[in-house]
Amino acid sequence: MTSALKPFRRPWLWLGLWWLAVMVVVVLSLTPPPAVELPRHGDKVEHLLAYAVLAAAAVQVFRHGMPLWLAGAGLVGLGIGLEVAQGALTTTRMADPADAVANAAGVVLGLLTTLTPGRDALLERFR
After folding, report:
1. Residue 108 lies in a domain
2. Structural domain total, the chain
3. pLDDT tens digit string along 33-63?
4. Quick check: is 34 in a domain?
5. Residue 51: how many CB atoms within 10 A of its CB?
6. Which of helix, strand or coil describes residue 92?
7. Which tens digit of pLDDT belongs to each residue from 67-116?
8. What is the pTM of this model?
9. In terms of residue numbers, what domain contains 84?
10. Which residues in 74-105 are b (16+ Cβ under 10 Å) and which e?
11. In degrees, to the nearest 5, what angle opens at C-alpha 57 toward C-alphas 54 and 61?
12. Is residue 35 assigned to a domain?
């Protein structure tokens, strides 16, 4: 598995932090939503940003190429799966295909950070 990660001094630390962020999104997606009134479609922005952050973090942790593509595909699958789970497993949430689209769009935005000079910022700092 470490061959899928960038050559950090402590690759498992960074992978573990990424997985922790993924787990936070899972928990927040399946627990009752906060009683905060959002603007119309404001939840779509939340979905987009959450998945963009996860994907941008994946760009920092995973090697470019297949490992990163698999992480991105996994995040898209997670976003779709969580929407299905919200409808099937919870009474406080509902499945919304538009949320799944926002999740996937966020993944694409996050993966686009591979085109920026900062794509290896974490590696340069913690090699």
Report:
1. yes
2. 1
3. 877 776 777 789 999 999 999 999 999 999 9
4. no
5. 25
6. coil
7. 999 999 999 999 999 999 999 999 999 999 999 999 999 999 999 999 99
8. 0.93
9. 2-29+42-126
10. ebbebbbebbebbeeeeeebeeeeebbbbbbb
11. 130
12. no
